[in-house]
Each structure stands twice: as C-alpha cells, then as structure tokens.
Amino acid sequence: MNWKTIFNPFSKYSENQLLLVGILSLGITLALCQWFELQVDSIFHYRYADEKHSLIENIGLSLLSYSIAIIIFFILGKIYNKRARFIDIVNTVLISQIPGIFILLIGELPIITNSMESVRLVAEKNPENISPFDLIVICIFSFSALLLIAYGMTLFYNGFKTATNLKNWKQIVIFAFLIIVTTITCQFIF
Questions:
Q1: Rounded CA gap, 163 and 165, in Å?
Q2: Which UniProt keywords apply (predicted)?
Q3: From 20, 54, 90, 144, which residue has the greatest number of CB atoms within 10 Å?
C-alpha cells in the first residue's frame, strides 16, 4: 500500500469493495454514536444525542444527514459529468467518514474526557488556574481531530474527483462551497 492508495482508495478498489467497507464503517459509526450518546447531524460533525429521541430516531436522523449529502453531491456530480454514478457518490460519502470513527474513539479516552471536564469546571470558577497539562491534552486532541477531518475531506475530494472527473478550478470552488453549506445547514436542520 502506498500514499496514493491511502489518500485515494477510489482509484484502486472496486465500487463493491468500497461499498462494503463504507457500510461497515457506517455501522461502526452508528454503534459508537449510540454507545457514546452522540448523533451524526451532518457529514464531518457529531453532537450529543437528544435524550427525548429514541435509538431508531437517532439512527434515522444520522442516516438522513448522510442521505442529504449523497443526494446533493450526486446532483452536483451529474451536473459536472453526466456519466457520474450513484454508487460512486455513496462510496465517496461513506468512505470519507471513516476518520470520524477515530475522532469518536480518541475523544472518549479517559485522559481526554477528564481534561475537558477539568478545564470546563475550572474555567467556570477561576480560568487562571487551568492546568497546563489539561490544556496540552486538549490541544493535542484538537490537533489530531483537525488532521483526521482534513484526511476525511481529502478522501471526499478525491472520491468526488474520481467519480466526476473534476478538473476545473471553478468546479472545485463550487464543490468546496457546497461541502461547507451542506455541513452547516444539516447541523441547523437536525
């Protein structure tokens, strides 16, 4: 396995292999979200699950957020390239969310959760007494999460580029703008 495969698995693996891995990762993501009481409210974003929603409602809202992204980017893909296939866009969305699994797991490590809780409690009373260790732990986690999100966005871009033969810089700008709009809009809807 080389760097090209890591950053663009869409050019090496078949759509069926990617779909299988994507569905497996979706299942893992939904299970972790349920375990940690989180919900996928848009691509690349998680929030604490609403206590009044049932398990089925949380899974439904998570799947709906993925479905919205798939539909929007399939439409954009068809505009860019009439031969863009639905399965390629589904794979793009699902595979690009795999780094989120690592964010969920790292974010629930006791050292991370304890540091975040400690900083929250101290910041409410006396922010000057925040432990430097806790701040370092939070900064390392934040930087790691940022790298994983950037990797997910890279996977999303490379998958979409492979599915639609994206080349024009104007198309890339529209694609990037649409990711931002879709991510933010879904967060407000759900």
A1: 6
A2: Membrane, Transmembrane, Transmembrane helix
A3: 90
Model pLDDT for residues 68-127, shown as the tens digit of each residue: 999 999 999 999 999 999 999 999 999 999 999 999 999 999 999 999 999 988 888 887
* Residue 128 CA: distances (Å) to CA of 125, 132, 142, 189: 9, 10, 21, 37
Q: Which residues contact 141 (CB under 8 A, 6 or more apart)?
A: 106, 107, 112, 115
pLDDT by residue (tens digit) across 119-132? Answer: 988 888 887 888 89
Sign of CA dihedral 82, 83, 86, 91: negative
The pairing of beta strand 45-48 with beta strand 38-42 = antiparallel
- Specify the long-range contacts of residues 110-116, CB closer than 8 Å, at least 24 apart: 111/137, 112/137, 112/138, 112/141, 115/141
Q: Which of 7, 5, 9, 38 is nearest to 105 (CA)?
A: 38
- At 38 the three-state DSSP class reads strand
Domain limits of the chain?
Answer: 12-189
